[in-house]
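Hello K.,

You asked for the raw outputs rather than the summary table, so here they are, unedited. I folded two proteins back to back in the same session to keep the settings identical. This is the first:
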Amino acid sequence: MTVISTVITKYGVVHASDSYLTVPQSDGTYKVVEDRKPKIVKVEPWRGAMSYWGLAEIRQDRGRTLDWLQDRANEAHKFKTAEAFAINLTGKLNDAIAEHPLKDRGIGVHLTVYEKVNDKTWIPELFRISNFKDTKYNVVLSRVRLTRETYNTNQDVRAILGVERKTALRVIQRLV
């Protein structure tokens, strides 16, 4: 079981996580097998980071999920946009899970980045990549899905305020 918190403020983005790797027991409890394993990876091209929960060993021949995510983060500079990177990460994660002997194990990734808007303003974005059906985490889907969490919030703010994108961005900057 993992605790992940991702907070976006006007001062920056913070990822926080426990450092336990656990395995489920037959009685429904979890046994800690390692207690000092980070679950956060830096994604430099977009001033970002990834944190994960769920499946801790993505591929038996490639090691821990953390190592797998680090390999992906090292390739981030090859993509023109953070969104393109997130889409690619989702596809590769689906491929890796398809090869995993425990296909019914859930996994999730928070990817935060800063995206440049109007060639001068950097705004934060949270991509959620997960095969959990919802935040109850009790139903695992057959494929990993990608959602833009902050962008959706920005759209909602524009609709609520009834303003154009440029005005909404100024309002959002003041809010965060």
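The second followed immediately with the same parameters:
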Amino acid sequence: MSLYKLLCTSVPILLGRRCDSFLHRGIEKTANTFEGKLSCGACCYMLHFHLKQMNIESKMMLKQIGREDHCYLLYNGVVFDPTYRQFIDSNKWFESFLYIGSVKEIERHCGRPFWSEAKESPEIMDAHLVIENEQYANNKGVFFGALHNIN
């Protein structure tokens, strides 16, 4: 399953939403309109699962500025952010909805400080266990039990 399809299938389940429209900017629902507004945590949770399948062991980073926060994944100093688009006008979007690059580049491009000086999130990155083990998923909660059934 492509990352885009994985996120559009799993993130609404994790957030208790009925469809994936909220993940997109505008009416059209494609990878070209995906922005992931207000869903960075769930998107990163599932991106971590996707990367883990490719033997990339990332960690979730969290940056809080006042009452706002943002999270992304980090692997060997490289940022993986599936929801960076929510911070900028669509005419400034990179071609891919998944940003892969440096903290310095994404902050310069977006004009926002949501990546530098982030701390590792305490969030448990266990989507692989949720997907693989029905009992584990059900014990974790209703939404995780539903997530177990996406394969």
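The mean pLDDT is 96.

Happy to rerun anything if the numbers look odd on your end.

Regards,
P.
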